[in-house]
Records
---
Amino acid sequence: MLSTTTPVSDVDIFDDEVLNNPYPVYEELRELGPAVHLSRHNCWVLPRYAQVRAASGDHERFSSVDSVGLDPALNERRRGGVLASDPPEHDVLRGVLSESLAPRALAGLRADIGRRAEELVAPLVERGTFDVVRDLARVFPVSVVADLIGMPLAAREQVLRFADAFFNTFGPLNERTRRSLPVAETLFDELAALMSRDNLEPGGWGEAVHRAADRGVIGEHQVVPLLRAYLVASMDTTINAIGSGLWLLAQRPEAWRALREDRGLVPPVFEEILRCESPVQVFFRRTTCPVRYEDVVIPEQAQVGLLFGSANRDPREWTDPDRFQVDRAPTGHVGFGYGVHGCAGQGLARIEAQAVLSALLDRVERIELAGPPRRHLNNVIRGLDSLPVTVTTGKV
Ligand code: HEM
């Protein structure tokens, strides 16, 4: 039973119209209270920054076990994975690739990733008109990460189809999830085969994870799920960060000019892109005890959505939050989550996105929309399907 003071909303945050533009709904939810019960999905959401950040950092009261998605049956299938476990099990899984993604290892990758970005960007710029999502954002992360894992790039299309379907399954069992389930299931096994020891190049993350199983750090049955988690988590997130970022910049010639003039702005601008258009809009948790915010109490065992996309636009935290601001440097945004589950690949994502932006900034004086962008709707990921642009070349 909900108390009479409980803020309640019957909005469906997974409805097409809301996914297309969730910001007015986020504003309503933030105004309703620090925690809001969504009657349609029988779950709670945290729409404000302070509570999202605190809950992300509080795995004892906000567990990820059987709860990162909204549907109980689908959560069961994720059981024991890095995203869906709590410490101490979580930390063992997370530890397996922590060295491969540590600043030291990433520093050694920066030059190679920069070179790859230039090789991809140069011919596109020469063409003058191209689709940012199809020709660039969907090509780059998969080639970088497939090589880091040591898996054949021939699997690219499978990986991308799997990632989109997989992210849909974190939402409710709506039409989008139902359509995604057969895709996710078919590709699940195909990807497992591609990640078998024989199919992986030596020296990559794949080998590191198989070795961890040989040493008994993790079980043999955890190898493929762990690799698949890193692969999938690194796709639509980075793809949409690049796509949304160039969408924001293509509409703001003054921002592009500022970046061309001061490359020191590239890292903070990428953070501002993640704040404004967070690729991961929501992940869920389950309360392990009643949690009180002012006069609102979320009961024990409640499913709670951390609305990263809303928290990052909360005026209680950010001045003029709906404005994309080149020099904002939004420290503390939750676009990568926070706490024990805070993004394991954020260092790599930053290198990839900054490499793409730098390769474009070196060559392009003006970037403009060449047609209307097309939004892609996914239950938890925000991004575009298509972003046609025209570029005008010019050295800095
Ligand atoms: C701009 C790109 C990216 C964004 C916006 C992003 C966002 C996120 C977010 C919000 C979470 C937190 C999930 C939670 O709290 O339940 C997360 C977790 C995770 N991310 Fe990323 N991510 C990105 C890129 C990557 C890349 C490139 C990799 C792999 C190399 C990666 C691997 C992971 C993994 C393994 C987790 C689970 C961590 C855990 O549960 O301990 N991500 N990411």
---
Amino acid sequence: MDKKAKVFAIMNEKGGVGKTTTATNMAYLLGKQNKKVLLIDFDGQANSTILMGNENPNNIGITISTILNNIIDNNYILPPEDYLIKTKGINLIPANANLFYLESKLSTVTFREYMLKKFIDSVREDYDYIIIDCMPQIGVPLINVMVASDRLIIPTQSEILSVKGLTELIRHYIGIKAVNQELKISGILMTMDKKNTKTSKEVKKLLDSNFKENVNIFKTVIPYSIKVSEANMYKKIICEYLPKNTVSVFYEKFLKEVLKNEQ
Ligand SMILES: Nc1ncnc2c1ncn2[C@@H]1O[C@H](COP(=O)(O)OP(=O)(O)O)[C@@H](O)[C@H]1O
Ligand SMILES: [Mg+2]
């Protein structure tokens, strides 16, 4: 493996498709394998920040917005001791509602697509993996993520309308490839799947017929379990709360598949 971290962005322009669940569990499982992991919460809703043990994100002084605003305003990169939260075996850069203002802030700068890349490149040497839990809205902030990342993982809820929304995201990806040749789609991940239902089968078919030729579709499918929300209620992620639950087991399988594809 390179000395530099591989940067995985968990992205979909839709909300509620399993981005945060995938990002947090993936980061947590990599941490368990003694990898050096940085999880960046890149959604103003701050769900990753909360699930990694911070009850009130809006009370956190320094977040990913602070880091990016410093780069935009002063061309200054804050040192890690100012912002890192060490939690559950990984390093976290939290987010809070301030991130909702990033888009308008970025509109005032030149090279606005490169602000996150500037930051990430400065910490790459410190980690094995950097995982970015993305906001759902496509705009300049998400373009920043695509420019800064090596891989996109696209979770999609096992539901017909979710699959139809993917075309737009993949169109953006093709545009970004021109400026970031490193960027690849690691794959599309079906989440919250209710096995053997008509929907589940139709979604699989639709994914295969629309994307399979150009994009990897992970063989691992994450099942639906009510235990995920239960874990979240206790501010925990499923792999931490119930490591033997089927969802946890399938996230482990999924991670193996991701890493295998990297070899
Ligand atoms: N495999 C799953 N089984 C059951 N519920 C899930 C599963 N994955 C996610 N959820 C629930 O679905 C909701 C949306 O998931 P989340 O990961 O927050 O999506 P996103 O980050 O894309 O908005 C959350 O309430 C979460 O607890
Ligand atoms: Mg989320």
